[in-house]
Amino acid sequence: MANGLHIVEVTEWNPEDLNSLCSLLIEVVADGASIGFLPPLNDADAKLYWEHLLEPSVRLWTADYDGEIVGTVQLHLTMKQNGAHRAEIAKLMVHPQKRRLGIARQLMDVAERAAVEAGRSLLVLDTRAGDPSNTLYRSLGFVEVGRIPQYARSADGQFDETVIYYKLLAGSREIDFHRTISSTGGRAHDSIEG
User: Fold this and answer.
1) Closest Cα partner for 71 from 106, 39, 36, 109?
2) 104 in helix, strand or coil?
3) Rg (CA), the chain
4) Burial level of 54, CB count in 10 A (0-12/13-18/19+)?
């Protein structure tokens, strides 16, 4: 898609998007992002990560800017019976050359709306202390709960603290949560009825 920014939900893989997301992940890790990987991240590890991501409890969006995937965010829906009211924001990333254009904010808005539509009333997330993402999350109404020291190792070997945030969502609907067992292979899955 050309001419502007488009946020698209990924529900299945196509080779072009998978390759673009691998390149994005490698680029943001090389730039120092604390998203679970250390540089240098290779193509095979990036591809393995993305290929195993999509499942019913994970929603994934990409930001397409003038035909190029330049950002992404995930919403992890808690599927436990006592947690069906919450979700976690994960792996918000924007290509280093496309930052400060409002892309991260738009991705967060989409994920938050999806959480409300899914009946979630609480969002949680964590991010490395000192990263610019802290300013974004606070500006979106997230509240700092606390910090965990020595949470994640950086490329230079030092251990960084992480900041835990939450946000109570207005407008979410009440949900009934029922655990069912799929008839295909006996694998457990969750259904939500509103």
Assistant:
1) 106
2) helix
3) 17
4) middle
**Token output for 157:** 């070997």
Beta-ladder partners of 64: 6, 69
Cα–Cα dist 148/145, whole Å: 10
Q: Are 73 and 106 in contact (CB under 8 A)?
A: no
Does residue 24 contact residue 69 with C-beta atoms inside 8 Å?
Answer: yes
Helix (H, G, I), strand (E, B) or coil at 76: strand
The helix/strand/coil state of 131 is coil
Domain span holding position 187: 5-193
The structure tokens 């947690």 sit at 83
Query: For the whole prediction, is pTM greater than 0.85?
Result: yes
- Tens-place pLDDT, residues 99-158: 999 999 999 999 999 999 999 999 999 999 999 999 999 999 999 999 999 999 999 999
Dist CA 127 CA 161 (whole Å): 9
- Total length of the chain: 194
> And the tokens for 10?
């990924």
pLDDT, tens digit, for every residue of 36-84?
999 999 999 999 999 999 999 999 999 999 999 999 999 999 999 999 9
Output the domain CATH number for residue 64. Answer: 3.40.630.30
- The domain tally of the chain equals 1
Rounded to 5°, the CA angle 176-178-183 comes to: 150
**In terms of Cα–Cα distance, which of 54, 63, 55, 53 is closest to 20?**
63
67 φ/ψ angles, rounded to the nearest 5 degrees: 85, 5
